[in-house]
Write a structure and sequence with these properties.
about 280 residues, alpha/beta, Metallo-beta-lactamase, Chain A, eight-stranded mixed β-sheet, 17 strands, about 25% strand
Length: about 280
């Protein structure tokens, strides 16, 4: 497991990656309270790319007052893509303000499983701004700045392997980021049943970085899944909420196996993932 290194060392690693032609990417798990907002900045073969995965909750406030200023501070003037993992407000609520406030080349999501204020606002912005939308399903691959994002879930047509009742979380996008030999697994809010289905699939799950599913809830923990991923760093994006997440037992289980970073304790978590497979906290 890699531990924190001085900022100068991180900068040197990025410079060396750029000089050698290797791919490197930086992941920023923003502190947006109870929700997800992840900025991917990729450098390598091809032009640099910036991708936003989810944008937190509270329509307007977090997107306008937290996410957009964060992008500006990180010299992001335009986004190659916005990816919405699912339409729950704690992931999709800030997206309309982001679409209003910065140029976005493309929008990706799973099929909407329900219509709500978030989906309606997003659809209105996409139509008004002429931003193309693509529906993603298992097997789809996207390339950004020399990095590849593979969709591991949901299967095309729906999450039929999940026992009923199927809830919206079970249809979240699960994304595997490949950066040379570096890998990060982003399972959004999928449940333990989906984690079991992923583990039973043919795709290897091992990754240096894991976003802890569903904000550390009991309904989204699998010891076998964690063992299959074997991350060096696990990131918990969480804040005050009425559901009791994260579960103390789940957090303890992760801490027995890996280094856990929490946005409610550590603020925005920044990870450098280089092409050699190393993951380093910035």
């Amino acid at each position: 497991m890699q531990h924190a290194v001085p900022a100068l060392s991180v900068l040197l690693a990025l410079l060396l990656a750029g000089c050698s032609g290797e791919t490197a990417c930086r992941l920023a798990f923003m502190d947006v309270g109870y929700g997800d907002a992840i900025l991917l900045q990729a450098e390598g073969a091809g032009a640099p790319a910036a991708v936003l995965i989810d944008a937190g909750s509270s329509p307007g406030r977090l997107g306008r007052d937290v996410v957009l200023p964060f992008l500006a501070r990180n010299s992001v003037r335009a986004l190659d893509a916005v990816i919405c993992t699912h339409s729950h407000e704690d992931h999709a609520g800030g997206i309309p303000a982001v679409l209003d406030g910065i140029a976005v080349s493309a929008f990706y999501s799973p099929p909407w499983r329900e219509t709500n204020a978030c989906t309606a606002a997003i659809e209105q912005r996409l139509a008004h701004l002429g931003i193309p939308r693509r529906i993603l399903a298992r097997g789809d691959r996207l390339a950004f700045g020399g990095c590849e994002v593979e969709v591991l879930w949901p299967p095309a047509g729906g999450a039929d392997v999940v026992p009923p009742p199927v809830e919206l979380n079970a249809h979240s996008l699960v994304l595997l980021l490949r950066c040379g030999d570096g890998r990060a697994l982003l399972p959004a809010d999928v449940t333990a049943a989906v984690l079991s289905a992923l583990r039973a699939g043919a795709v290897g799950l091992q990754a240096a970085v894991l976003k802890i599913p569903h904000h550390g809830g009991r309904d989204a923990y699998s010891e076998a899944f964690l063992a299959a991923v074997s991350p060096a760093i696990a990131v918990l994006s969480v804040g005050e909420n009425p559901w009791g997440n994260p579960s103390a037992e789940v957090v303890a289980a992760y801490e027995r196996h890996t280094r856990v970073m929490r946005t409610d304790r550590d603020g925005t978590v920044r990870v450098l993932l280089d092409g050699s497979g190393r993951a380093v906290i910035e």
